Amino acid sequence: MSKIKDSTGQTWLQRFRKARRKKVKIWGRSLTRSLASFLGRQSLVGDTPVLDSRHFPFLASFTGNWQAIRAEAIEILKHRDAIPAFHNISPDQKKISKGTNWRTFILFGFGNKLEKNARQAPLTTKLLEAVPDLQTAWFSILSPGYHIPAHRGVSKGIVRAHLGLLIPREAEKCRMRVGDTINVWRPGEIFVFDDTYEHEVWNDTDEERVILLFDFDRPMRFWGRLVNNTFLGLMKFTAFYQEPKKNLADYEDRYEAATRRANDNMEKLSDDG
């Protein structure tokens, strides 16, 4: 019965899941809008689009080691074809991630370390493990000429940091708008922002942009932390969490296989020599 397809080629089960996913999205947007004002009032670090980095002293370990972090990213990029696009991991991002223009090498997802990927960047992983209440972290790789359309994040209870690693020479042409604020990445510099404010990215250069992106819990009062943790806990039961979780495991295996093949080929060349 579940395999009978309609005129669109979908089974009734696929239609049901699609309709349920749509309802969950609508419910989620409504809930996040309702929570945003409350969580903003609970914030201990202000409620502006871009936050003062001095609130987060642990960020100094990233700016102090940015060149070593960049070196790990460069090694990972040697197998860029095995690095998934953002929407390959999270299909909900299809509207803002097209083709392979925005690749993501994920080290932590939803608070969990991806062990195989983490082994590719041991220093970066060690620094990330010291971040209080870390949620997600990845190397974000943006193709030349790509524009990420305006969008918003899910929870005001989480803030996001960007560390510049490989930045186009014409840095002013590679920028991000958060609310009404324009930010330009610089190698070794970091900034923190609230991604529930509308934001978008332009790379109007002919060079790739690579940053380390990571999310962590916003410092809040007790009730704000409680509400945010409850909301994030509920999210883990939805497709928003479950689908990327499965995809992460698949692509982690693919990247590991790609590096293994490359190493095997190098050994063969060495033996032949």
Furnish the topology, listing elements before pairings.
Blueprint: H1 12-42, E1 50-51, H2 60-64, H3 66-76, H4 86-89, E2 102-109, E3 112-113, H5 115-118, H6 122-129, E4 134-142, E5 147-151, E6 158-166, E7 174-178, E8 181-184, E9 190-193, E10 199-203, E11 209-217, H7 222-235, H8 239-272
Helix pairs in contact: 1-7
Summary keywords:
single chain; globular; alpha+beta; Jelly Rolls; 8 helices; 11 strands; seven-stranded antiparallel sheet; 273 residues; four-stranded antiparallel sheet
In short:
The chain is globular, with a radius of gyration of 20 Å. The chain has helices at about 10-40, 60-65, 65-75, 85-90, 115-120, 120-130, 220-235, 240-270; strands spanning about 50, 100-110, 110-115, 135-140, 145-150, 160-165, 175-180, 180-185, 190-195, 200-205, 210-215. The strands form two sheets. A seven-stranded antiparallel beta sheet has the order 1-9-6-11-4-2-3. A four-stranded antiparallel beta sheet has the order 5-10-7-8, with no helix packed on it.
Question: In the CATH scheme, what's the topology name?
Answer: Jelly Rolls
Count of helical stretches = 8
Q: Report strand %.
A: 15-25%
What would you call the shape?
globular
Report on the structure:
It is a single chain. With 273 residues, this protein is of the alpha+beta class. It has one domain (12-17, 22-260): Sandwich (Jelly Rolls). The chain is built from 8 helices and 11 strands. The chain has helices at residues 12-42, 60-64, 66-76, 86-89, 115-118, 122-129, 222-235, 239-272, and strands at residues 50-51, 102-109, 112-113, 134-142, 147-151, 158-166, 174-178, 181-184, 190-193, 199-203, 209-217. The strands form 2 sheets. A 7-stranded antiparallel beta sheet has the order 1-9-6-11-4-2-3. A 4-stranded antiparallel beta sheet has the order 5-10-7-8, with no helix packed on it. A hairpin with a 2-residue loop joins strand 2 and strand 3. The longest helix is centred in the last third of the chain and has 34 residues, at 239-272. It is globular and about 65 Å long. The protein starts with 11 loop residues before the first helix and ends with a helix. The model has no long low-confidence stretch (mean pLDDT 88).
